[in-house]
Amino acid sequence: MESSPILVYLAIPSLHKGGTESQVRILYSTLTELGYDVRIITRKGLAGCSISDLKFMKIIEVPNKSGPNPLLLVKIYKLFHSESRKIFVFSYLDQMNVVFGILSFFTSFTWFSSERSDPRYRTSLYYSLSKLLMKRSRILCNSTVGLKYYRDRGYDVLKINNFIKNNYLLEDNYVWDKDFYTHSRLVSTKNILFLLHAWKIAKLNSRLFIFGSGPQFNDILLFIRMNSIQNVYLANELEEGRLLCEFSFFISASILEGFPNSPIEALLANKLLLLSNIDSHKDILEFNSEYLFDLNSVNTLVRLLRKSIDLSMDSYIKAIERQKEGLKRFSNESTALSYSEILK
């Protein structure tokens, strides 16, 4: 079989479980199926060996040092200079954006950096360095707010939607147990404590399941216990089978998001979405804004929680179908086509 005239590198610090890491794995598979020769560059020992599909991937491990250390830069420089084919690089997260920003001064390749969150709230010095170097690339954003932020500042930027796990797609299977769930990384920007405050006030005869891991896990657990909040369950993992046969509602009180995969996957599994009124969520619920809630008062969420469980089954199904109107803009086929276009 003739090798591809194009060599594609996907560079990410690790492939452990996470939203960006999941997108890189899907992109690897998609581009490989399209006939491209794809390699993943990641830090040694951080490839995420528990993920079963890694054994089918071409992975290049680089020295496990934080930041753009000389050994890492030299290894990638030599790697690129040993190739005669045209090289495309997609770099993910600040560390890899900085590494390939520096390398772009010394060797030739077509570089696409990435912005996976809301850049308006990013203030670290490392991000400032990353943003400066990203001027040398074309930035791929996965959100409207990211697109506008960089475009207004004169960057070369393109919005490409995330891939969606469509194995949740169900036609007419609805669960009416009136239980709620949220699924996210447990960090302050996900605003779980705000959600718990509203849940305590609402006093619903329903259950709230919080799935996720992260630095706020213990703080959330302590908040639940100290405030004697009832009918709340905290767990690290959400098994796929549970999503298909449990829960009526998905809820997110996030302060900021890039491309919110979890709500879209929930909607594909026929869960009614209750989302904070932020730009990324409005992209999804532009056809059903009555299920957006403001973050300036916990009572707005309390009222929405109570309203939701008072729906009839028929009204619940109709509300989900209205929300699904917004999904027509998000398809894996159009995302794959966007990548094919920029690799021409």
**Strand tally:** 13
| CATH class assignment of the largest domain | Alpha Beta
* Relative helix content: 25-40%
Number of discrete helical segments: 13
What CATH calls the topology of the largest domain is Rossmann fold
Largest sheet composition:
7 strands, parallel
Q: Write the element-wise H/E pattern from the N-terminal end onward.
A: EHEEHEHEHEHEEHEHEHEHEHEHHH
Q: Looking across the biggest beta sheet, what order are the strands in?
A: 3-2-1-4-5-6-7
Distance between the termini: 20 Å
Please state roughly what percent of the residues sit in beta strands, choosing from under 5%, 5-15%, 15-25%, 25-35%, 35-45% or over 45%. 15-25%
Structural class: alpha/beta
Domain unit count: 2
Shape: elongated
Q: In terms of per-residue confidence, which ranges show pLDDT below 50 for 5 or more consecutive residues?
A: none
Radius of gyration: 21 Å
Give the overall average pLDDT: 88
CATH architecture of the largest domain: 3-Layer(aba) Sandwich
Description:
The chain has 13 helices and 13 strands. The protein has 344 residues and is of the alpha/beta class. The protein folds into 2 domains: 6-160, Glycogen Phosphorylase B (Rossmann fold); 166-329, Rossmann fold (3-Layer(aba) Sandwich), CATH 3.40.50.2000. The strands form 2 sheets. Strands 3-2-1-4-5-6-7 form a 7-stranded parallel β-sheet, sandwiched between helices. A 6-stranded parallel β-sheet has the order 10-9-8-11-12-13, sandwiched between helices. The longest helix is centred in the N-terminal third of the chain and has 15 residues, at 19-33. The chain is elongated, with a radius of gyration of 21 Å. The two termini are 20 Å apart. The mean pLDDT is 88.
